[in-house]
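Structural prep section.
Before we set up the soaks we want a predicted structure of the protein with flavin-adenine dinucleotide in place, mainly to decide which crystallisation condition to try first. Input record follows.
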Amino acid sequence: MSGTDSFEEFRSRIRGEILTPSDAGYDEARALYNGMIDKRPRLIVRCADVADVIAAVNFGREGGLLTAIRGGGHNGPGLGSCDDGLVIDLSRLRGVRVDPVARTVRVEPGCTQGDVEHAAHAFGLAVPAGIVSTTGVAGLTLGGGTGYLTRAHGLTIDNLIEADVVLADGRFVTASEQEHPDLFWALRGGGGNFGVVVSFLYRAQPATNVYGGPIFWKLADARAVMQAYRAFLPTAPEKLGPFLGLKTVPSCAPFPEEIWGEKICAVISCYNGPVAEGEAAMKPLRDATPAPILDWMGEMPFPALQSLFDPLMPKGLQWYWKGDFVQELTDAAIDVHISQIAQAPSDLSLMHLYPIDGAVRRVGVGDTAWSTRDATWSMVIAGIDPDPRMAGDLKSWGRRYWQAIHPYNLGGAYVNFMMDDEAEGRIEATYGPNHQRLREVKKAYDPANFFRVNQNIRPAD
Ligand SMILES: Cc1cc2nc3c(=O)[nH]c(=O)nc-3n(C[C@H](O)[C@H](O)[C@H](O)COP(=O)(O)OP(=O)(O)OC[C@H]3O[C@@H](n4cnc5c(N)ncnc54)[C@H](O)[C@@H]3O)c2cc1C
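Run finished without errors. Recording the tokens verbatim:
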């Protein structure tokens, strides 16, 4: 191991665990959520505290090691790990502290959404984030963060108050509107480009029991449902977060056997309020659509809705992701979606449209790094299957689908819905008017591009 610090000295300073390829537990430690990605780091440092993170950053930088930051390990292209380098693994740092008076939640960077939801729910609170409880909060937040509460309360970054960060030179800083405001601006959408975030402080929002769940329609009705949903969304109260999906009914309980394997159009919603209000909010959509084949909306605790899909998506499946921001869903685009989903290579493969309107639009384009605040949806196409032999089919379907639909969409995409094979210019298109400023902040905080295992923002020239 190279570096000014010998490996043994480094090991003696780490309170957590260091794993190398010869250690028992290495394969388990390097495994990522996406089974399609198989990276073999030289070293995995499972940090026990911030001191370990500082030591690991210094060791990686001084040793010239390619260095990745791992939060929840859910990233599509596996950007929480790297081949032949150092992984700063934060998965043991899972503390959550709720302040019910200030209505804030302090979160360590190895937390999953489920960790945060569990802790906050006891106080009738929630941090707006994604829709699957196993997702890592750190990577999700730094990319932006969209979910059921987005329309009412904004992106996850719109609820971030401050972040503690270990910078590329090993310094520890707190970034907020008051301290290092340029860094705080860049962290809100700029991904893991600027340092290792070791603590997040969020504003929490009231959420206890919600009225939520899926409604499924036959694919033959998808055109009518998508048209109705498109008209409904701008009129729906912001307390309602309804996303649209094209997918296949899973061939397992609790789904009725007679519809297993059927392609469907789904609207999966969460109304953050009483059932009667939620039913009233959904009424215009129900009135404007054909009879569904399944309507499972009901009252449930918010964390229950957040973990509804967990059993269908265990760690280790093959995933291929493509994304886009979408402003308008035209009839022509709807036809493309329907014809592409009909060719999906597996039952788990899907397309989702997540609303990013409402409160997202009340934040200015230049107020955070995440700039596409005039979009209506963030689209994801995901080819998913348990069988590694399906990897080629999942990729070619995802690419074909994306090529067919992209002409109807905006140039950029949510960075957390990208793989590592995006065309030249996608990062620029994603950040748009904020890209150059991001490059300046990168130059100020990480001029040597030490943190480059990410959707990379190159330091300004
Ligand atoms: C099943 C599933 C459902 C999802 N649903 C949603 C959703 O509803 N909404 C949504 O917005 N996204 C969603 N995502 C996407 C998700 O936001 C990304 O996969 C995200 O990268 C996950 O973060 P992580 O911490 O688990 O990632 P990791 O794989 O651990 O890390 C990904 C990248 O984040 C950066 N990073 C991680 N931790 C830190 C840190 N502490 N400091 C600095 N950089 C760090 C690093 O650059 C790393 O390369 C979903 C993903 C999956 C797999």
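Observations: Residues 33, 68-76, 79-80, 90, 109, 130-132, 135-136, 138-140, 142-143, 145-147, 191-192, 196-197, 313, 416, 453-454 surround flavin-adenine dinucleotide (CB under 6 Å).
Flagged for discussion at group meeting.
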